[in-house]
Amino acid sequence: GEGEGEGGIVEQLQGMISGLISEIERQVAREPRPKRGSAGNSSEAPVHFRIYTSKPPFPGGLPPPIGLPFMPGGPSGGDDEDGEVPTLERRLRAAGLPAEAEEVVTRELRRLRRMSPMHSEYSTLVDYLEWMAELPWAPPESPQPPVPLSQARAQLEEDHYAMDKVKQRILEFLAVCHLRGDTKGSILCMLGPPGIGKTSLGKSVAAALGRPFHRVSVGGIHSEAEVRGHRRTYVGALPGLILQAVKKCGAANCVIMLDEVDKLGRNSYNGDPSSALLEVLDPEQNGAFRDHFLAVPFNLSQVLFIATANEMEGIPRPLRDRMEVIELTGYTVDDKVAIAARHLLPKQVALHGLSPGQLSLGEEELDHLISGYTREAGVRELERKLGALCRAIAANVSEAGEAASEAAAAAAAAAGGADEGAPSEGGGGSEAAAAAEAATAAAAPIALSVADIERVLGPPRFEPRRDVARRITKPGIALGLAATVFGGETLFVEVEQVAGKGAVQMTGNIKEVMQESVKAALTWIRANVAELGLAKTASEALLNTTDLHIHFPEGATPKDGPSAGVTITTALTSLLTGRLVRNDVAMTGEITLRGLVLPVGGIKEKVVAAHRAGVRTVLLPQANEKDLRELPQKVLDEMQFELVSDVREVIRAALVPADVTEAEAAGSASGDGSEPATDDGRQVPLSHPLPSVPTGVP
């Protein structure tokens, strides 16, 4: 039986193969192959790729053959309407391909029909056609209508505190989009320190336009193929990040955010990704963007690109030229207090399982938290500190809830015992009351004090606002201002002299530009010793027989830039003349060898940093007066600005009078006025009055 069964199967297979060969011979005889070079029907499939299946009944009880699996007539191809190739054809016809893409797809489909599924290119070709079918080649026929401007304005005000200029620019952009009906020609770049809401602003723009939003992080990519895609000759080839984002959005008019565009890879052997982005972000070229994987033009002109960056220096100049930069600056302390109360604290309360309103912080407590535990332009560290407070409260609430549950269980047990036996008088009632009291205490709102904050977070990391005044205790110390990618910072300059031969030593991790500022300051002082009140012979002996050491504290932080010239000159003059620098004055600006004060950048960040540090008078270059219009009104109301054009004006405004002793000037650290205070409380008059800039700067 068993041998006969195997023999029957062999005979059946041989019969099928013989029939297949006979059919091939008949078709070859009936349809002769056209001669080479003749204009025959080139679209006719070769004979050996036709479908061959047996007709029922099938002998010997064998299962019905489904065609040879290595031919398109098998499971993966053929004329079956539910096969892979017909499905792809229907999807591609419905994709609305442009003429060039349709021609390429038709050619590739013809190749796919003639190709065996076991061919090495079969899966790659199927992936290519699937990408062509899934990409949105045309805007949706019934797009979501844009949000009215009044609603967009209200949404921006609700989601983002302060940043009035930025929100106004976004509303102007939305108004133009509403009037034109598209966003072609608009490439926005939001420039600002980390943690100030650049990504959330991009989401708000997408919501106001009624379009899908996708974020692409381009920081650190080192290959052009990450932007343009890989050619299909590579195994596992895919389109670039741009077309992947368009596919995920599913719309040709989506909003794509290119995050951290200033951190693109440099000096790569695989091509420059910033150069690849030039075509993507150029409104005149991205209408026919050619990805290496697709190898056909794709229209990106309807896509709104929004880039984000922390600093302008990291963006290549050709790429910067293609974007409209919207500058965002850091928040003031008052802004952070409002943001924490309106957004951050409710968010952290919900994330940590607390009920709304169960944790509250007053303005004084929030101000202490911001000033003592955070020193940043944004609010990320502040949000982490609020999360730490919420975790501590959540732990207390959980323990109180467990105690309430145990008390309730004990009360229920006591009540059951009272029903069975003789209860103790009032025992069950007191335990039930205790359980109810514990449950009420667990759900009661909690208002944290400054002492509670320090108990949870430890002692403050940063000194109070007046710590700046307490550090200027002797001649040779001045306070400057610097702008970094994290916002504005205060920068101390300390100068000391020791016996030597006139050498100058510079420490504090300063770079070449700042070293040149030191040399320019020393040259100006040597050339103007008479104006500084120093006898020429005495000053020459002093400068030639002593060494100067110029130090910038916090040496682990690199420092560079052209805005420390006036601060270095003031510190050197203070040391050589023995006059103390006012402890409520900060300054910024570069100097020339002739003593001119040149304008610098980052004025808003620097002034906000001075305000945050408790300084109320800032010396600025005369040419930077226009930048005061960008300052928040609260900062303008609380600060004074001395506009200077010569370093002599800086020295007159920054140094205390020569007749004030060092001991008297040192007492200004405990004074609460804008002028130095002596030990007996009297105010030391300034060398000349400081005119303040009117708060209503036009």
Please write out the topology.
Elements: H1 2-30, H2 84-94, H3 99-114, H4 122-134, H5 149-159, H6 164-180, E1 187-191, H7 198-209, E2 213-217, H8 225-228, H9 241-249, E3 255-259, H10 273-280, E4 289-290, E5 297-298, E6 304-309, H11 317-320, E7 324-327, H12 333-351, E8 359-360, H13 363-373, H14 380-420, H15 427-443, E9 446-447, H16 450-457, H17 467-471, E10 477-484, E11 487-499, E12 504-507, H18 512-527, H19 536-545, E13 546-551, H20 565-577, E14 585-587, E15 590-591, E16 597-598, H21 603-612, E17 617-621, H22 633-638, E18 640-644, H23 647-654, H24 662-666
Parallel strand pairs: 1-6, 1-7, 2-3, 3-6, 8-9, 12-13, 14-17, 17-18
Antiparallel strand pairs: 4-5, 10-11, 11-13, 15-16
Helix pairs in contact: 2-4, 3-4, 5-6, 5-7, 12-13, 12-14, 14-15, 18-20, 20-23
Mind explaining what this structure looks like?
There is one protein chain. This protein is an alpha/beta fold and 698 residues long. Helices cover 43% and strands 12% of the residues. It is built from 24 helices and 18 strands. The termini are far apart.
